[in-house]
Amino acid sequence: MGTLYDSGLDRTAANFAALSPVSFVERSAEVFGDLPAVIHGQRRATWRELRDRSARLAAALRALGVGRNDTVSVMLPNTPEMIEAHYAVPALNAVLNTLNTRLDAPLLAWQLNHCEAKVLITDREFAPTMQAALELLETTRHYEVAAGFSPQTLRSMVYLKLGQGAQAAAEARKILDHRGQVPRNR
Asked: What DSSP letter does each residue of 92-110 carry, written as one string?
């Protein structure tokens, strides 16, 4: 015999909606648009701002060719940019691979190879470790800076597109060495 909750509660439009990060941020932006979504030190963002920044990141990733079942790896601390990635990547039906900031370069390189990351987003704080990890990646992979990002979009991060080809990892190392500057479009 079932319980009270087993009777007459079949899924309908009135009592059930599948939840996803995308639908959550959309609804939150519509219902709570002017309320705080992110508080990080002195930085504040409303639900509407979070949705808009996530949408811009998703559009930038789409411009890089990220789509369904592609992997986007991120090496970020718990910052607003990490939250944005959690909404932007699923919006493309892509897979978000969050790298552990405590791991060493060999493990990070293994993870990047294993998950077949198409794009890497990393905070400059982790540039030395990520540089070493990129040097350890398979030699058939090449790296290029994602084009079309403004300094406001990049903030403290470096975006790298990982792909197949013969170009050396020296380009990625050069990019990561520009810790004080935003990478320039090619």
From this structure: TT-EEEEPPTT--HHHHHH
pLDDT in tens, 148-183: 433 344 334 455 555 543 343 444 444 444 433 333
> Exposed/middle/buried for 105, CB within 10 Å: 0-12, 13-18, 19+?
middle
Which residues does residue 159 pair with via DSSP β-bridges, in sequence order?
A: 121
Q: Is residue 70 part of a domain?
A: yes
Task: State the pairing for strand pair 71-75/95-98.
Answer: parallel
pTM: 0.73
Quick check: is 9 in a domain? no
Q: Residue 123: in which H helix or E strand, if any?
A: strand 117-123
Q: How confident is residue 122, by pLDDT bands cut at 50, 70 and 90?
A: confident
Where in the sequence is the domain holding 70, given as residue range(s)?
Answer: 17-177
